[in-house]
Give the backbone structure.
Amino acid sequence: MKTLVLYATKYGGTEEVAKTIADNCDADMVNIEDADLINLDRYTTVIFGSPLYVGKIRKDLKEFMLNQIHKLSSKSLHLFITRGMKSPTIDEIIEDNIPEYQNILQTAIDFGGSFDFNKMNLIDSLIIKTVNLDLAALDENENLDEKVSSFIGKLAHKY
Ligand SMILES: Cc1cc2nc3c(=O)[nH]c(=O)nc-3n(C[C@H](O)[C@H](O)[C@H](O)COP(=O)(O)O)c2cc1C
């Protein structure tokens, strides 16, 4: 029984969450940029992780999930999202982004996000102004270990 944490990240926040989960589950952790290296046959459980950008999960992760759905659907599948805003709900995010996964994800959870203005590129700062992203609402991942423990607890019942 081997677990893969497959994540996408732009500024590193989701990678931090992925690493905490992988460390706690003794899982392999792979950035979607290295998806070519993955042999899915090795895994019985896959945990996907993506940040939300303007309501969307990362395109490369979504494409992988859709392209590999036949191989993945026989496994135990879980999803975590990192994000700055409290709405929409995780179920609405799944319905909007990956409706094909609505009935095959066993656990879905959202973590808060992290934000470093110094790292952000010009386009992203413009997007934030355009969509009026309420950064004050950003739920920093201060108690990441607690949230990860709760996520893993839920997942453990579903292996
Ligand atoms: C341009 C931009 C758009 C974003 N859009 C959303 C959004 O629509 N909803 C949300 O909840 N968070 C949004 N966020 C917050 C990110 O999801 C959050 O900071 C996340 O932790 C970033 O993950 P990363 O460091 O792995 O890239 C946005 C952030 C940026 C910079």
